[in-house]
Amino acid sequence: MDDDDDDDIPQAAGPLLVDGSAGEYVARGERRTKSPIWPLLALLLLVNLTTSIQNLPLNRLLERRLCRDYYGPDKDVSEELCKIDEIQQDLAWTIGCLETLWVLGDFAMTIPLGFLAEKYGRRAILWLNLVSRLFLLSWALIVGYLSLPPQALIAGSALSVLGGDTVFNSLVYVLAAKVTDDNVTRATYFSWMTALSSVINFLGPAVAAATMSLRLFLPFWLGIGLLILAIPTISLLPRVASTMLVADDENQRPLISSPTLKAQASNSTLLSPIVERVRTLVSVVRSHPRNLTLLLISFFLTSLASSDTKLLAQYISKRYQWTFASAGYLLSLKAVVNFVLLSIAVPFLLKARRSNTQSQSQSLSDRGNLRYSSLCLTVSVLGAIAISISGRVWMLFPSLLLYALGSPLPVFTLGLLKSPAVSPQDEGNPAGSTDPDAHIFSIVMMSKSLGSVLGAPLMATLWFYGIRTAIFGLPFFASTLVYLAAIAVFSGIKLG
């Protein structure tokens, strides 16, 4: 929390707004000042690029260690000889454990860290989030340089309790949602963020492939450098008003019902406010229409199904006997489609829809989000099943491109969160909850994280048995079924 936050408090005569970071107020009734989005995009670039470039070298580092254990430490074995079933099964198990423990620690600490974000400010928790990521990369370097047992790398996920992808995305998307009051502009910001992620997705594997071809440890050092740059970037994040408070007309003091003020004023242990926060999140869901519950289930299912993408590098390397560097270049080509969709096609679609619906009701925009979400889910089903049956590389490439066509899904599903049929203005603020937007986005990220928590071990297990039985497409068959379940759930959303 910054020491000069109190200087931002205006001398207003009306009720006040307070941000989740302590002491950031604006007068209610004044139009919210437009905050710059670029620091948020810069932070997203630095953190997600680090995550994107670490996957390939982590797989290759573990594969090389397992290969040396199998053939003997004194032998310099080529990567092609490491594609045998025994080594690839051990690789699948180790990476699966690493991914599972990372998302499990992150998920378990989502609510406690959310409370601490209200007490100490979002920036403090984002800085803390960088520590867990720096430790993972540093530990990978230690395992590699000291030739520790490959299973020792699993310990790199130990600090995920300081926050991982769920905590990071929850904070970032809440900030992005509060930069503007306009629903279409908010959807555009989400599109920019998703487009940036798609750019990272095709830059990351290519950068990782190029750097690890020079030296295996170079991507890890590059990731550490990017995270160090993220430290000052957090200081530039926009300060936005988030919490509506009712103040006494005489002394203009916000009520203590604010979760932010409770977090700052509480001298009790951390457990009681965490329990209270869980109750608040449950009450938020119960106070909303059934559509919100269905939307949260769809977030969970799509996150579970998309866990198969983390196996793509191993899948390509094993099934087609490719090096991890070559697989990285192929994955980069796949992500070009994501980039075109999310940086050009979707923003153009949103802009056109905005110009055509300015004089019409919000329901038309919501129906568009619902229709495009269903289309993305259908394409994802076709893409997953196509990948699973691709016996040759020439079949895999168009299948990957087809799968990529479903990547705009988060743009439209997140846009539905602000629909009156999902989050009515008069029902989204139960007792004790003065920041329903932040709560809803936290619940969304927790739903997605829970899908990842279950998806990581499930896909790793299916891949392990897929290698053993030579049914390499088994994880993608499972993803197809989960996407179909998501379509069934999504069909239950009624906008009225």
From TrEMBL:
Subcellular location: Membrane
Pfam families named among the record's database cross-references: MFS_1
Keywords: Membrane, Transmembrane, Transmembrane helix
Highest rank taxon of the organism: Eukaryota
Its membrane topology: Multi-pass membrane protein
Chief location category: membrane
Transmembrane segments: 37-56, 124-146, 152-177, 189-210, 216-237, 327-350, 370-389, 395-417, 438-465, 471-493
GO cellular component, one term: membrane
Coiled-coil stretches noted in the UniProt entry, renumbered to this chain: none
Protein name listed in UniProt: Uu.00g138930.m01.CDS01
Species annotation: Anthostomella pinea
Native organism taxonomy: Eukaryota, Fungi, Dikarya, Ascomycota, Pezizomycotina
